[in-house]
Amino acid sequence: MKRVFACPQGVSLAAVAAMLVAGAAQAQTVPAPQQEPETQVETGEAPAQNPDIIVTGSRIVASGFTAPTPTTVIGEEQIASNAQPNIFNTIAQLPSLQGSTGTATGTFSTSSGQQGLSSFSLRGLQPIRTLTLLDGQRVVGANVTGVPDISLFPQLLVKRVDIVNGGASASYGSDAVGGVVNFITDTRFTGFKGNVQGGITTYGDNEQILAQAAWGGAFADDKLHIIVSGEYAHDEGVGPGNFGIDLAGKRDWHLASTLLNTGVTNNGLPQFNYRDYAQPYQYALYGLINNGPLQGIAFDVNGAPYNFNYGSNGVPLGNGRVSNCYPGNSFCVGGDLSGAVGSGASLASELQRITGFYRIGYDFAPNNEFYVTVSAAQVKTNNQPSPGYNRASLTVQCANPFLPQLVRDRCATAGITNFNFGSSNGTFPSPHVFTDRRQYRFVGGLKGRFGLGEGEWNYDAYYERGITLSKIDVNDIVLQNRYAAASDAITLNGAVVCANAAARAAGCQPINIFGGFEPSQAALAYIMPANGPFQHTRLTQDVASVNLSGNLFDLWAGPLTLAFGGEYRHEFYRVNADAYGAGVSPISPNNAAYPADPLLNSALGSNWAAGNYKNGGGAYDVYEGYAELNLPLFDGGGIGRANLNGAARMTHYSTSGTVWAWKIGGTWDTPLNGFRLRAVTSRDVRAPNLSELFAAPTVTTLPNFANPFPPAGAVQAFQNTVGNPALKPEIARNTEVGVALANPSWLPGLSLSVDYYSIKLDGVVSTLSADQIVRFCFEGNQAFCGGFVLNSPVQGGNFINVQPFNLASWKTSGFDIEASYRWERPLGLPGSFTVRGLGTHIREFRVDAGIAGVDIEERAGANTGNTPDWKWLAIQTYENDAFSFTVQERWFSDGVFGNQYVVCSTGCPVSTGNHPTIDRNYMKGAFYMDVGGSYNVTSNIKAYFKVDNLFDHDPAPSPQTNTGLDVNPALYDTLGRTYRAGIRFNF
Fold it and tell me: pTM for the whole thing?
């Protein structure tokens, strides 16, 4: 991995220069059809016949132009040596990428729809603020957030990936707030090549298979070029584990670590306590009476009652609480952990991807091409969010015929007719989420160069039509009111039936919830219909774009160069959901499939325990034009060489009006050999995406939500997330200043750079969490009190509404550092030794919610998120004509659970929503070592191996405040040591 500081004549890393000119194709430049001469690897200069190859930091195409925005380039060799089944994994390792999503993230969620979605996040600003391109062109989103799925890209044909570490909206348009990731494919590939790879973890799971092949041919005197490629990959995934703390594959690092809430804020002790082996005390694996005079009676697998072991020396108090335990979120420590659901979530989604890519290009004149590309791809994933069905608020009648006689006698003695009951329903089928994303993309374009006056101009014009068909289907989810009706049994005419007559008429079948008795197939069909929750989405993207660049005229220090162009874009989506989740809607085609049921809410839906998807749709149009200018300031004369670069873009959104983006910066190659200064500042924009504007409301189940209002305790609630069509674009100010030592004559091959960055983002589209909304209301801020209900007597009546607004502002700053050196014939050995290191230090990541009473939150160094203080990647490689060997280190620093916490043990201040008190606030970082190598079997065949996480380093606990899995897969490796091996060939 190498950092490019300029266009090829100024590139410090010789190998990068070689990679750039050895056949790499770009959206802006058409390679000359004739054979290129050998690259001058000692100086890093491009060959004279093709000097105009650029990286993505600018749209200017000009020999010798140096862009002021730092751009990291990952070449074909680096991609191959990392030996990942998905190119996404290689790019996501870069320190400047924080918070990217992949197969190991999102597996705990049922409703997000992002399971297995591989998307990049630069600077920790989330994937929606990173613009991902394919050959400089936009790609239709893989879900309604607008972010693409890298798994759908034609990966074998990728020659390099450019990562622009800074705002690029003025050059490339909306979403490029954190930067740009541009995949450059080989549009002139000829021959036949392929790759076959397999992998497995040290725990015997996540088996992987990858098969890739590509063919390219040149015809009609090298004017007609045809490329075909296809790929198949399958990752088996990891998980799920079981109830309790046992993970899949004998992984032993899950300790059910939790921040336990005492519920007391002003007694001088910390409100939150970090503890391992946290156990929820409102439910058990096969059932637990959790309130009233019988509180503490649990049921074993055979339905026999016993006294539940709460841990913490806890004794049930009869009011729903347990002595010596934590009423704020209803946990004890130790005891019977068998009903905890956290370890039952998948650690990595199973993923299967199939891609096909076709390109036909015809040179209708020298250096001028007409081309058509067609790609079709499918990615399917599945995961288990959690096992069973966690229910803590069921009312059970003492007359229930399934209830053991001993407990019925206790009811009579206590003078009660019913009691509260909670269960993990350990014998229920576990829910599974299946996603199926199919993408079809068609591009037709012209690109090349033409003479105008005494200069030469480059042009690139294309039309793209993209279609994504996304399906999310959930199996084995409970309809809550039907579950409640089926669990309420009576004896009628000698038979056990559902107590509710209307439910019986609708097909209700009774279930025995006391013990490990499996429901009958008829009962399961009633409470878990075969047609579970689903969300079927169609997204389309139409783009028409034209870009030109060339020299206007010569000045005292070189040509004045201009790039300009325009683009039209239309984005559309429509989503249909099942009627049980969405409710009756004229745009839902599926209502007729569901019979009327008096127990269910047919108007509003939200009947499922999770996965309550809604119907929706929306569209917007974008019109934009830009211009970018490069002005040479001076060249030679003992003062070095410098240029000034500026760009402006006007964009009109049909939803929110017109907005401007701009940038201005420059570089100075000083008289000091190899020493360069660069700086750029920009105004960048991100328009709200379809999901934020027109989101079909989504409903997320919060099974153990901490309710601070009397009677305080954990309740089940629904989080309703809805869109806001009145949103405006976000505006960012991005500044970068850097110094670089690039290939000095006194030590050729050395490269050093340090860049400071600062990003201030205003009008951020964001929401408060459900917990924050409730806590701020509880603390007296009435502005938050109108959007939730937590003490509803109606089943499913508790909810918290969450909606995005342009309220927040973010500010982040830090440093990027890179060093590399290539040593030819080390210690007299044949070949070369290369060392490289890339690091990012986040000085601050301040989140201002923009709401009175909500303090600014500092996220830098919070390892429960994705912005550690330091993140490094180091690589050492020895290679010769026969073999290569690589060692790679990945490291990020120790951190905290959250900077908002006040650490104390006694004499604590009053704990608040802004600054809660806690007894421990430390989260260990991680160090991973990877090794790999290759052997040239023949000149055309190479065998290779790779071991990731060589020492099988376990992740640090990321404590939860509910029943989730205590891990942060956005930062930590959750799978363990992984072995891979394969063969590449090229004929």
Answer: 0.88
